[in-house]
Amino acid sequence: MACASCSTKDGSPKGCKNNGTCGTDSCNKLTVFDWLANMSLPNGEKPFNWVEVRYKNGRKEYYHNTENLTLSIGDIVATQAKAGHDIGMVTLTGELVRVQMKRKNIPENVEEALKIYRKASQKDIDIWSAARDKEEPMKVRARQFAIDLKLQMKISDIEFQGDASKATFYYTAEERVDFRELIKVFAREFRTRIEMKQVGFRQEAARLGGIGSCGRELCCSTWLTDFRSVSTSAARYQQLSLNPQKLAGQCGKLKCCLNYELDTYLDALKDFPKTDTKLYTEKGTAVCQKTDIFKGHMWYAYEGEWMNWHKITTEQANEIIELNKQKKKVASLEEYASDVVEDTKTEFENVVGQDSLTRFDGPKGNKKRRNNRRKGNQGRKKTGPKDQAPSNNKPNQQKPRKNNKRKPQNSKNAAK
Length: 416
Hints:
Low-confidence stretches: 1-5, 384-396, 410-416
Strand content: 15-25%
Order of helices and strands: EEEEEEHEHEEHEHHHHEEEEHHHH
Structural class: alpha+beta
Region (Disordered): 354-416
Mean pLDDT: 79
Largest sheet: 5 strands, antiparallel
Domain PSP1 C-terminal: 114-199
InterPro entries: PSP1-like, PSP1_C
Organism: Algibacter luteus
Protein name: Cell fate regulator YaaT, PSP1 superfamily (Controls sporulation, competence, biofilm development)
């Protein structure tokens, strides 16, 4: 989705070249669409005096507009920080900010709430842009310092405060890291206040962004606002193979999309009996081997006959379990499995057009025989009966033609 100032030239996108400060805020990730923008407030109602401000890589904070500034989406503002001030961009105003704060459990009536100072001046924007340009070369040097000190950590991103008075280093580590010596090196080299902030692997992928195995941008960096825990039981319920290479995302953890259809699978599994429940028949005890959630089928095998599976429906399995609870046994599973008839007839559509889908299914002939026949036909055409020289070979050496079953049309001419 591009902003209004983006355009194309010769078929390729030119872009607005605003470097993250787009006026309409349509090129930014995690953007909330303000569907109340064209609606006016009722008479006597005051606009909500909280504003959502976005910083680097989708980090968002909510500020109290105590000065009653007239703000709109895309305005650059100077906000309150713990020390100094920060520069951010307004991404949402009005009643939708109240909804977002309620969703994220942020209280409205707080005395120590952060405030918006003013709209950013050109000087503030120049200092902010100069600080942003330093972040990438600083990250390369910071990683080298961590490697020299042999610390088991990865510095994933650096974010400068708007007034360039503080730099926040985001890092990931599997274990606890003692970085006191590293902070001294950073303060001596970069000449600014340093703050180290550890983030998880999912948060790192959300900040950096990327392309997933589905070919689309990562959900955590586009529209996901929170991270829910993902366990291997979600893959088991969906009958997926527990292959860590296929189930892991760009962050190295289980994919967030495993939870998307989990509720639907759990609702479908309510009609299925538990897989560890055995079916008792007069022929023997049957154990569940496989389930098909989409078709509602289950496969059972008798103990001792593990190679022979019998397919029954979930209704039939629940019926047998109810009879077993009444201490009754059915004769066998075969009488239930015979009722489930598979439709093995498959109908193919001609998606190619005039070509047949079975045009390559015929048996292939022997290439050697075809080549020999072609050579023999070419030799006969070149040497006719008039051009042939009389041969001195004996008549017995010439082999007669095989399968010469032609009969003469007239018997009298044949006798002459």
